[in-house]
Automatic annotation (TrEMBL):
GO terms for biological process: animal organ development. This is Forkhead box protein P1 isoform X7. InterPro entries: FH_FOXP1_P2 (IPR047412), Fork_head_dom (IPR001766), FOXP (IPR050998), FOXP-CC (IPR032354), TF_fork_head_CS_2 (IPR030456), WH-like_DNA-bd_sf (IPR036388), WH_DNA-bd_sf (IPR036390). PANTHER family: FORKHEAD BOX P, ISOFORM C, FORKHEAD BOX PROTEIN P1. Residues 596-606 have a biased composition (Acidic residues). Residues 215-227 have a biased composition (Basic and acidic residues). It comes from the Eukaryota. Keywords: DNA-binding, Metal-binding, Nucleus, Repressor, Transcription, Transcription regulation, Zinc, Zinc-finger. Residues 394-467 form the Fork-head domain. It comes from Chrysochloris asiatica (Cape golden mole). SMART domains: FH. Residues 333-347 have a biased composition (Low complexity). The lineage of its organism: Eukaryota, Metazoa, Chordata, Craniata, Vertebrata. Residues 1-44, 81-100, 194-227, 319-351, 541-606 are annotated as: Disordered. It is found in: Nucleus.
Length: 606
DNA sequence: GCTCTTGTAAACATTT
DNA sequence: AAAATGTTTACAAGAG
């Protein structure tokens, strides 16, 4: 309901505390100082108490991320168990040979797919480097893209898989003839009991889920408290992308056996989940590094003479704290791939904006030529981000870009209108005034642009971004290798959804995200999510013999026959929007936004 | 000057 | 009934 997030945000500031994902927490961390700084000394004045606070918040965030990882691992293990067929003996008994054959075929296909994805990512990375958007120093910490972008060979994937599962690969890999395919083998045919995993996972012994890898699983499952099943919670099946409502645990088990038995889809989902876990771990490592760098940086800064943050280089201004640990081009859509996206020229306009000139009220007609789209310097990124949070300077970005950014920053890639409002007010001091004006503009833009898709939810409606549509608005330079993409499109039946997701994700990445520290690596996160969502949703519909995705029908539409913008399907749209978002699972915990309109001043007075 | 894009305002309908 | 949300139209301005 539209009241939901709004009233929650207005009446209860504690909504920020219970975000389900690390990103929410970290996001709050990233904006921690916002509430402390006044408009004049927003960025640098960090006292010891503040620092301690930040540290605590970061630690909490890491803790949450860790838990998230554990959950992911548990989920993954559950899926493995499912895929291994231990819970569906009927199917196993019926056609074990056939299944093995299928699995083997699928392994090959998926391996192929993974390699292609990695190549594509690598290509994309190289392109970014060439464009000067990425600068990789020899001694620099690994880029977020690297794990995939480096084109991991199967053995590397296997190594990752080992690290993720921490245990139950040793026996399996040794017993496997084709070691390069172990990634899938371990996932699909894990019939060997794993004892080490019990040691590795502190949660395993408590919820009894790790024994799923043992033949004793069935007996152990009786000992499980009904609600401790990692794939079951709040009466909903937690299988990625499922969310089927199961009234009680037995019905859930029934559902699990019926809907998530060993089949192509489950197998693929399991593998994707593996990737997700891997990426999350990498993200966690990254965020740890970032935290360290942040603390180091702040310690240094706090001893330096204060200087008012000046967005001398607004090009990099709206990028959140990524500067300390990596050079990934995390900024608002200002890259050569979005040539006409407005941008504040470095040498034009309010090159130096002081707090006295900040109150730019009233209509400002500015368009920024892409010729000012210079490579992004990551030097004062964090400062400028703080700057916009605290100074009432109109951000040099279009409403459409901002809305898109708000949506893409959200974990679910979907936001209610009110959440979009909140993002605006949270990120830009400018939007804490004249609410009627810019809110109207936001609504206007949401309705006007085809790239914004309204998706009806159980609780109301959320807005998502149709990345393909967004890209259509501004012709982009090809950042990937078209032939490679083309090549991918003809490789396998599964390639269709995967490629679509990958391409969309890369298209998105070609517009570097104005990401939060929490997202750490939106690239990989989006990619993983995209692939997972695609697998979850599209495979149900395209797992047939169709080697090409049916045009004009987006995965999301296929997944959720919900109301989207009702427009006559003009031929131009025949290729169909590709939406990478999940719908209808908008978590209430996600409503962490605060409504500044109710407390615009208190924000700074706290 | 034309076209396109964007911002702003406003009217109106629908939903909550 | 009021507020929020969503759609649509109109107009102005900047930029190519």
């Amino acid at each position: 309901m539209m009241q939901d997030s709004g009233t929650e945000a207005k009446s209860n500031g504690s909504a920020i505390q219970n975000g389900p994902s690390s990103s929410n927490h970290l996001l709050e961390c990233s904006s921690l100082r916002e509430g402390r700084s006044n408009g004049e000394t927003p960025a640098v004045d960090v006292g010891a108490a503040d620092l301690t606070h930040i540290q605590q918040q970061q630690q909490q965030a890491i803790q949450v991320a860790r838990q998230l990882l554990l959950q992911q691992q548990q989920q993954q293990q559950q899926q493995q168990q499912q895929v291994s067929g231990l819970k569906s003996p009927k199917r196993n008994d019926k056609q074990p040979a056939l299944q093995q054959q299928q699995v083997a075929t699928q392994q090959l296909a998926f391996q192929q797919q993974l390699l292609q994805m990695q190549q594509l990512q690598h290509q994309h990375l190289l392109t970014l480097q060439r464009q000067g958007l990425l600068t990789i120093q020899p001694g620099q910490p690994a880029l977020p893209l690297q794990p995939l972008a480096q084109g991991m060979i199967p053995t590397e994937l296997q190594q990752l898989w080992k690290e993720v599962t921490n245990a139950h690969t040793a026996e399996e890999t040794t017993g496997n003839n084709h070691s390069s395919l172990d990634l899938t083998t371990t996932c699909v045919s894990s019939s060997v009991p794993s004892k080490t995993s019990l040691l590795m996972n502190p949660h395993a012994s408590t919820n009894g889920q790790l024994p799923v890898h043992t033949p004793k699983r069935e007996s152990l499952s009786h000992e499980e408290p009904p609600h401790s099943h990692p794939l079951y919670g709040h009466g909903v099946c937690k299988w990625p992308g499922c969310e089927a409502v199961c009234e009680d645990f037995p019905s859930f088990l029934k559902h699990l056996n019926n809907e998530h038995a060993l089949d192509d889809r489950s197998t693929a989902q399991c593998r994707v989940q593996m990737q997700v876990v891997q990426q999350l771990e990498l993200q966690l490592a990254k965020d740890k590094e970032r935290l360290q760098a942040m603390m180091t940086h702040l310690h240094v800064k706090s001893t330096e003479p204060k200087a008012a943050p000046q967005p001398l280089n607004l090009v990099s201004s709206v990028t959140l704290s990524k500067s300390t640990s990596e050079a990934s081009p995390q900024s608002l859509p200002h890259t050569p791939t979005t040539p006409t996206t407005p941008i504040t020229p470095v040498t034009q306009g309010p090159s130096v904006i002081t707090t006295t000139s900040m109150h730019t009220v009233g209509p400002i007609r500015r368009r920024y030529s892409d010729k000012y789209n210079v490579p992004i310097s990551s030097a004062d990124i964090a400062q400028n981000q703080e700057f916009y949070k605290n100074a009432e300077v109109r951000p040099p970005f279009t409403y459409a870009s901002l809305i898109r950014q708000a949506i893409l920053e959200s974990p679910e890639k979907q936001l209610t209108l009110n959440e979009i409002y909140n993002w605006f007010t949270r990120m830009f001091a400018y939007f804490r005034r004249n609410a009627a004006t810019w809110k109207n503009a936001v609504r206007h833009n949401l309705s006007l642009h085809k790239c914004f898709v309204r998706v009806e939810n159980v609780k109301g409606a959320v807005w998502t971004v149709d990345e393909v549509e967004f890209q259509k608005r501004r012709p982009q330079k090809i950042s990937g290798n078209p032939s490679l993409i083309k090549n991918m499109q003809s490789s396998h039946a599964y390639c269709t959804p995967l490629n679509a997701a990958l391409q969309a994700s890369m298209a998105e990445n070609s517009i570097p995200l104005y990401t939060t520290a929490s997202m750490g690596n939106p690239t990989l996160g989006n990619l993983a999510n995209a692939i997972r969502e695609e697998l979850n949703g599209v495979m149900e519909h395209t797992n047939s013999n169709e080697s090409d995705s049916s045009p004009g029908r987006s995965p999301m539409q296929a997944m959720h026959p919900v109301h989207v913008k009702e427009e006559p399907l003009d031929p131009e749209e025949a290729e169909g929007p590709l939406s990478l978002v999940t719908t209808a699972n908008h978590s209430p915990d996600f409503d962490h936004d605060r409504d500044y309109e109710d407390e615009p001043v208190n924000e700074d007075m706290e």
